[in-house]
Amino acid sequence: RHPLATFFHLFFRVSAIITYLFCDWFSNSFVACFVTILLLLSFDFWSVKNVTGRLLVGLRWWNQIDEDGKSHWVFEAKRVPTIAASTEAEARIFWLGLIICPVIWTVFLFSTLFSLKLKWLALVIAGISLQTANLYGYIHCKLGGQTSIGRVNSRFFVTADAPKRQARRMSEDHIEEHGKTGTR
Amino acid sequence: FAGLADVSISEDILVEGEITVPVGSRSLDEDYSTLDEPVRDTILRDLKAVGKKFVHVMYPKKSSALLRDWDLWGPLVLCVSLALMLQGGSADSKDDGGPQFAEVFVIIWFGAVVITLNSKLLGGTISFFQSLCVLGYCVLPLTVAMLVCRLVLLAGSGTVSFIIRLIVVAAMFGWSTLASTAFLADSQPPNRKALVVYPISLFYFVISWMILTFTPQ
Hints:
The structure holds two protein chains of two kinds. Chain A is mainly alpha-helical. Chain A has one domain (3-145). Chain A is built from seven helices and two strands, in the order H-H-H-E-E-H-H-H-H. Chain A has helices at 3-21, 23-26, 30-57, 85-115, 121-143, 145-153, 172-178, and strands spanning 59-65, 71-77. In chain A, strands 1-2 form a two-stranded antiparallel sheet. In chain A, 29% of the residues are buried. Chain B is an all-alpha fold. Chain B has a domain at 66-89 and 98-213. The longest helix of chain B is centred in the last third of the chain and has 26 residues, at 159-184. Chain B starts with 24 loop residues before the first helix and ends in a 5-residue tail after the last helix. Chains A and B meet through helix 3, strand 1, strand 2, helix 5 and helix 6 of A and helix 1, helix 2, helix 4 and helix 5 of B.
């Protein structure tokens, strides 16, 4: 159902790993390889967090800061009534990609440490952190999925950044606090 | 929604916050039924958020945009461009300033993390990533200073160019420190503000020093 999402889910991660392994063939410059891999890792993090998780397995996690400045991590899971064969395959690809790549980057970490090529250390650590963050977020979504839906149901936020969005809902909390004055 | 009858939101009232996908399997499918359109929307929205934050850094005034809608794209772009500009130049040899590039990276990110930990230990109310976001975005004036320095160095590297670079870097250092202090100091209790401000100014001082002492090979 979402072939493009599946492709992109794996594309950035695998490209980052391949570039890291074969960077000597592509370019002599350490800087170019570093920047390329870093950008690939960042795009991978963003697309897995914001797009492919949502489309392939119906899970989503994010951080929101409420009015008094406290930050909450929200983990949301879509209740899937039927499981078609294609979505099962996509889900399997999603989870495999999500789990295998951080393991590979951990292997790279040890190889960097033991071969003392320390200039790559920053990059490998960045790779591990980004990929493990997504893994942790989605596992948390998956495990806590049932309980978090009720809570998230009552929290809709309006933003002025996307006036073209069709679905605009108001938070009930905000209505009670600010409804009387009519403005926010 | 009876309570909505007397509530109206006009375009010029600043409403900020984060988009939460409406929950319910039906509405998730409704909003994101195609892959291309929503991804473009998401990308554009994130790009606009990043752009707005850059503007807020250049004209620092009390605003919650940097604080509440944090993201780390801006700091990443600034860090990479600053590290690239601080490179010596010869890209052909194996030893092409590789360690210096990673050094700049590590200094900026590790320094930002240490300052964040410091402010949290002093009892700050701001969250970890918000603080990283502000510190990263406030590197923008120094990145501009680096650009100016490189242009000035193209013209010559005598005493005059050094004085120009010194003035520019000092001004941008002041701007960075003021901008970040404007956002971060408020989250501290009043008697702790100086304790929070001095590591920030030290951090930007180290970056300014790297910029000022840069000489192309």
